[in-house]
Amino acid sequence: MTGSNDKIGKLLEEILKWQRLQGMKILREILPQLLDTEEKRIVYEMTDGKNNQSKIANEAKVATGTVSNWWNLWYSYGILIKEGKGKGRYKKIISLKDLGIPIKPKSFGEKNDHSSRIDKQG
């Protein structure tokens, strides 16, 4: 029986390897579309099942309702999982770093201030 279990285990590992590869390809296609702003990328990356909605919203400089809406959308696409029972927290399924999707390091903790733009007309 153990020889049979070993074969099954090796087969499952092989299947998992190819499934993971296929999933990574799909994620590399879909994530840039779903996370099309720096704020969304910050919210997604901070969604680790530990950070609460208020902390994430504050860091990304967006409303808590916006975080909630994004979480619900991303959960429906399968890029978040629910963390814990009844906590209402989500967790990303993979880090953007692991997929090679950059987040500007200076974004974290910086205010999105567009008032410094100078209108060169006139």
Written overview of the protein:
- The protein is mainly alpha-helical and 122 residues long.
- It has a single domain, classed as Arc Repressor Mutant, subunit A (Orthogonal Bundle).
- The protein is 56% helix and 7% strand.
- It contains five helices and two strands; from the N terminus they run ααααββα.
- β1 (80-83) and β2 (89-92) form a beta hairpin.
- The N and C termini lie far apart (83 Å).
- The model is unreliable at 109-122 (pLDDT under 50).
Brief overview, please?
With 122 residues, the chain is mainly alpha-helical. It is built from five helices and two strands.
Number of strands: 2
Q: Which CATH first-tier class would you pick?
A: Mainly Alpha
CATH topology heading: Arc Repressor Mutant, subunit A
Strand content: 5-15%
Helix-strand makeup class: mainly alpha
Helix content: 55-70%
Question: Radius of gyration, Cα only, in angstroms?
Answer: 19 Å
Run of helices and strands: HHHHEEH
CATH architecture: Orthogonal Bundle
CATH superfamily: Winged helix-like DNA-binding domain superfamily/Winged helix DNA-binding domain
Distance between the termini: 83 Å
Domain module count: 1
Major sheet: size, sense and barrel closure?
Answer: 2 strands, antiparallel
- Globular, elongated, flat, extended or rod-shaped: what is the shape? elongated
Helix run count: 5
* Average pLDDT reading: 83
With strands numbered from the N-terminus, the spatial order across the biggest sheet is 1-2
Low-confidence stretches: 109-122
